[in-house]
Amino acid sequence: MNFEDEERERETDLLMHLARHELGHHVMARIVGFKVGDFKIGQDTLQIYGPGGSSSTNMMRPLRTKEEIVTYSRDRCKVALAGVLAGEMEDAVIVEAQSENKLEHGGGQDDYTKAIENIQLLRNILYPDSDIEEATKEVHVLLKELWMETIQIISAEGLMIEQLATELVERKMKTPKKALILTAEEMAELPLLKERFG
């Protein structure tokens, strides 16, 4: 394998990881009922800045009761956690230890921060009278609970995410110096997502 082939393989691997990560956010957002926006992988100047991506989600939802706030916080947490779990999959199978490490110490730290913020809100609602020591334990329990729920959901969607990531990366690699950007409408029309969500 020559240098150019090695670089292309490295770039493809990075983009696959990125595509799975962003698809994790996108798919989970749709499952819990949030509206999704544009989806992007890669940069217009990939060789200089390295791959990047985003999956926009509209987090607006009417919250009139305590129960609705609790559900909203749980759903936002699952959307945040889904990215790293999907991104670290190998052959459409979640690698939990690797995902946990990436979440806390690697590229998933922003998602971890979002998840913890929502768990703190959730804890404040569910256990308003706890002291600091109790609150720390409650946050840990809620995080573990939501982590396991997210694993269960992303595991069920793993094969679709892997197949869709492959499809999108193949499209991206045809224009290596341009980002692949799809609108919410274009994403919804992709056969795999259309079959899953209608």
Mean pLDDT: 92
The major beta sheet can be summarized as: 3 strands, antiparallel
Look at the helices and sheets and give the structural class. Answer: mainly alpha
Helix content: 55-70%
Q: Given the C-alpha coordinates, what overall shape results?
A: globular
Reading off the top of the CATH hierarchy, the class is best stated as Mainly Alpha
Radius of gyration: 18 Å
Give the helix tally: 8
Major sheet strand order: 2-1-3
Please report the distance between the alpha carbons of the first and last residues.
43 Å
Number of strands: 3
Overall number of domains = 1
CATH architecture classification: Up-down Bundle
Instruction: Output the CATH topology.
Output: Methane Monooxygenase Hydroxylase, Chain G, domain 1
Question: What is the string of helix and strand elements?
Answer: HEHEHHHHEHH
* Strand-residue proportion: 5-15%
CATH superfamily: Peptidase M41
Show unreliable segments: 45-50
Write the SSE topology.
Blueprint: H1 3-32, E1 35-41, H2 46-49, E2 53-58, H3 66-87, H4 96-105, H5 109-126, H6 132-173, E3 180-182, H7 184-188, H8 191-197
Antiparallel strand pairs: 1-2, 1-3
Describe the structure.
By secondary structure, this protein is mostly helical. It has one domain (3-187): Peptidase M41 (Methane Monooxygenase Hydroxylase, Chain G, domain 1, Up-down Bundle). The chain contains 8 helices and 3 strands, in the order H-E-H-E-H-H-H-H-E-H-H. The chain has a 3-stranded antiparallel beta sheet with strand order 2-1-3. Helix 3 runs antiparallel to helix 5 (109-126), helix 3 (66-87) packs across helix 6 (132-173) and helix 5 (109-126) runs antiparallel to helix 6 (132-173). The longest helix is centred in the last third of the chain and has 42 residues, at 132-173. This is Peptidase family M41. It comes from Mesorhizobium australicum (strain HAMBI 3006 / LMG 24608 / WSM2073). One of its GO terms (biological process) is proteolysis. InterPro entries: Peptidase_M41-like (IPR037219).
